[in-house]
């Protein structure tokens, strides 16, 4: 399945300022598949080392991290000659070997022409515990498949090309809009985990993708316990099933798990965040950039890894999604908000691969805007709604209190054209953030 990261990998290969590349992302989002296909199609020789499956590889990185020694032993291990500029060296599940992570620095300094990519399912747990070679590596994020990638994978390339873009908007007809919404419903049920998408594409059955969701859920749970020996599996299980139901809502630890101590819930939530199964969206007052400068650590909303896994965990009836004309009416609009947040995060997020929103807590008139989108040094508030402008009270309040913000976007499942009403711009919910 073609992924957006394919183009980025080709650009990385050609760059004269190339550094060893570390691909970050949750388990089973397709990192290994994409790198392997890239290596096999764009290099004369390709070497893949899996530090989780083959523990003997670890010995190569013990002791002296001499690049000459490591290259020699890697060639012997793989029985393949390594030629800088013609060979791709792929270090998979690199979090299993901290010395291999450290070696990236020396490869960059001493053999800069050698193409090296590293990836790992639980890499975030390691990054915070070692002295990482900052400035000597580059990062690329990989998320679940976007709606655009889903359409391409399911053989609807022409429909994928019709998706409007927020920066260069081209409206679609009502007929095409209805076809896009029909596929969007299937994407929301299938989600963007590659295995679930593959199962759906091969069988045409949404039920088959639901089977994959259960398999993925269980594998996530077991991997978390492996990397966090002291983790409370019951607490993690509870949060993984309950957090998706809080998407679109501000959360409090006591509400997430009233039967456990707050400290336990905080710990488990932090584990889920580091495993990239959960993204914490912080509230910013949006008075200026960067948004993170005024972000609150107390006011937050959750975004789950994948909309398909979300609907699975929440037990949403698939028929309710398929028969509903307006997706904002399904599950209190949380599915539509998860979808937009997931797409926004896949496009680098609000700021530095993070998401932010705006909230104001006042007894007389509290207000909240779903997302803050930053483009070309400007802030654009985004609401995921279905109603007319008159019902967008929070967005109007935000624009009144932030005169430096030119306008706000309303992403709606019922819109198929761009409509400007005062300082509001209505666009389809499936508009791409490119």
UniProtKB/TrEMBL annotation:
Domain AAA: 18-151
Ranges of residues in domain DUF4143: 225-387
Superkingdom as given in the UniProt entry: Bacteria
Name under which the protein is recorded: AAA+ ATPase domain-containing protein
């Amino acid at each position: 399945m073609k992924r957006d990261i394919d183009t980025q990998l080709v650009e990385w290969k050609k760059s004269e300022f190339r550094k060893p590349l570390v691909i970050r992302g949750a388990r089973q989002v397709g990192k290994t598949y994409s790198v392997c296909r890239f290596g096999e199609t764009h290099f004369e020789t390709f070497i893949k080392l899996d530090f989780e499956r083959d523990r003997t590889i670890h010995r190569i990185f013990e002791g002296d991290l001499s690049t000459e020694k490591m290259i020699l032993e890697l060639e012997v291990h793989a029985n393949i000659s390594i030629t800088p500029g013609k060979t791709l060296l792929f270090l998979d599940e690199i979090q299993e070997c901290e010395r291999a992570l450290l070696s990236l620095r020396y490869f960059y300094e001493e053999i800069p022409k050698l193409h090296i990519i590293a990836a790992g399912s639980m890499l975030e747990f390691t990054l915070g515990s070692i002295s990482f070679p900052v400035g000597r590596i580059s990062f690329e994020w990989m998320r679940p498949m976007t709606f655009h990638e889903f359409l391409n994978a399911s053989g609807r390339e022409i429909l994928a090309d019709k998706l409007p873009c927020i920066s260069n908007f081209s409206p679609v007809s009502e007929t095409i809009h209805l076809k896009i919404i029909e596929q969007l419903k299937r994407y929301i049920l299938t989600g963007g985990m590659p295995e679930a998408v593959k199962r759906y594409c091969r069988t045409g059955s949404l039920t088959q993708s639901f089977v994959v969701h259960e398999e993925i859920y269980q594998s996530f749970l077991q991997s978390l316990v492996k990397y966090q020996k002291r983790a409370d599996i019951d607490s993690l299980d509870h949060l993984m099933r309950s957090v998706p139901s809080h998407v679109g809502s501000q959360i409090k630890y006591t509400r997430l798990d009233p039967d456990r101590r707050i400290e336990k819930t905080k710990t488990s939530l932090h584990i889920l965040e580091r495993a990239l199964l959960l993204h914490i969206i912080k509230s910013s007052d949006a008075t200026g950039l960067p948004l993170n400068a005024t972000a609150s650590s107390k006011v937050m909303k959750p975004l789950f890894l994948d909309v398909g896994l979300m609907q699975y965990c929440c037990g949403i009836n698939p028929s309710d999604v398929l028969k509903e004309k307006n997706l904002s009416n399904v599950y209190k609009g949380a599915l539509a908000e998860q979808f937009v947040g997931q797409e926004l995060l896949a496009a680098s997020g609000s700021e530095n691969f993070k998401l932010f929103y705006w909230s104001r807590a006042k007894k007389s008139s509290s207000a909240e805007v779903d997302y803050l989108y930053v483009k070309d040094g400007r802030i654009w508030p985004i609401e995921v709604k279905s109603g007319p402008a008159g019902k967008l009270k929070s967005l109007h309040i935000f624009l009144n209190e932030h005169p430096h913000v030119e306008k706000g976007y309303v992403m709606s499942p019922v819109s198929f054209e761009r409509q400007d009403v005062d300082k509001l711009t209505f666009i389809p919910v499936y508009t791409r953030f490119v």
